[in-house]
Amino acid sequence: MQLAPSGREMADIAVRHGALDLAQGVIHSNPPARFFELLEDTKDRHKAHVYASPAGNLPYRESLLKILQEERSSLTLDSLMGASGVTGGLVSALATHGKPGDAVLLFEPFYPAHDWAIRSLSRVPYYVPYRDDLSVDWEILRRALPRVKVVLVANPANPTGLVLRPEEVTRLYELCRQHDVLLIVDEVYRDFVWEGQFVSLLSLAKSLENVVVLRSFSKNLGLAGWRVGFAITAPQRLAAMTRAHDALYVGAPAMPQVVLATLLSEFRSEVEEFVRSMIALYRTNRQIVQAVFQEIGMLPHPQSGAYYMLVAHQRESDTAAMEELLSKGVAVAPGVPFWRPGTRQTGYIRLHFALAPENIEELRTRLSRKAAA
Asked: 172, 191, 234, 251: least surrounded by Cβ within 10 Å?
């Protein structure tokens, strides 16, 4: 059976066809200007070009800790590891908990790289489908917990955009604690919330013993290719994760850690303004994208967060919808890769709306012109 292309593969297809890339979740924006200024100042510093400390360079971790203590005042440096993006933290957490053959719960639809990470470590994905409205089915979750060793959830979620309410985060935490299940939360989209309030597990958990919180600067600062993130958990677990991370990645890249240490400690207000401006733009994009796809007979299912949207395409198949849009110069991801292996059709495509103003206008032009033809 031929596999449907992933979002990353669709991004390559977009380049070859000259299409707008709504498939891969990479923001259409450069990092903050100050990042490049600091990078220029850093490039001649020898230590920026050698291996980083296994747990992450100290100035980077110290700058993070100062910010994170606003969410959890008791947090200490020995609970914080610099990671090679969220993926580095995730793989290190999975590799140091349980054993091959253990089940890891994923809410379905899921981010495919989470599924791949689980399988690459010889763990077994245990899929718990969302309800039809893309919310958590708590009864199915409750029945599943005795069968798994880990729950892995993205909050806000990719591809759905679902944001767990604070009381839902607390409920999930308590259920996992009752069943002695490790709860790993990928919070990479925490800055992108359109409705309601995002509250992190970091501030709600009574203890870090059975939780791992993962974040990175790939999305909010446009630094996906620099692979710079961090993981937060209890010190004993973090020590084991650090050894695994160093074996797998030889530490996170040093250069961006050096730059971000200064950026976060000395220019935080500029960083926050950069993020605010992106959020304002993407909030507008979200409304425009919904309207554009409705005009061509597709049904968007917007949720409260992230910059993704599942769209019910109402075409013969996911592939047919993807190919129709590609013929109009727009690349999207078919729904199939976000569902369990063996799924043939989902009725959905996934798109992202983290587009620059000129791209959003080009999207309107391409789909509106073609739709009217």
From this structure: 234
pTM value surpassing 0.70: yes
CA 373 – CA 79 distance, rounded (Å) = 58
Distance CA 94, CA 44 (A): 37
Residues in the chain: 373
C-alpha–C-alpha distance, residues 6 and 12, integer Å? 10
DSSP for 210-263, written as a single string: TEEEEEESTTTTS-GGG--EEEE--HHHHHHHHHHHHHHHSSS-HHHHHHHHHH
- Residue found under tokens 């990928």: 186
Tokens of 43: 């490039």
Which domains are assigned to the chain?
7-25+270-372 (3.90.1150.10), 50-266 (3.40.640.10)
Using alpha carbons only, give the angle 11, 39, 352 rounded to the nearest 5 degrees: 25
- 92: amino acid identity, one letter: S
Q: Which residues make Cβ contacts (< 8 Å) with residue 29, sequence separation at least 6?
A: 222, 278, 354, 356
Give tens-digit pLDDT for 146-194. 999 999 999 999 999 999 999 999 999 999 999 999 999 999 999 999 9
In the numeric block, the tokens 């069968």 are attached to 147
- Contacts of residue 373, defined as CB under 8 A and 6 or more positions apart, other chains included, come to none
Question: In angstroms, how far is the first alpha carbon of the chain from the final one?
Answer: 35
What single-letter amino acid sits at 310?
A: L
Helix ranges, the chain (H): 7-17, 33-42, 58-68, 85-95, 112-120, 138-144, 166-178, 201-204, 235-249, 254-266, 268-295, 318-327, 357-372
Tens-place pLDDT, residues 276-285: 999 999 999 9
Identify the CA nearest to 339 among candidates 106, 92, 38.
106
Tell me, what's the pLDDT at 1?
42
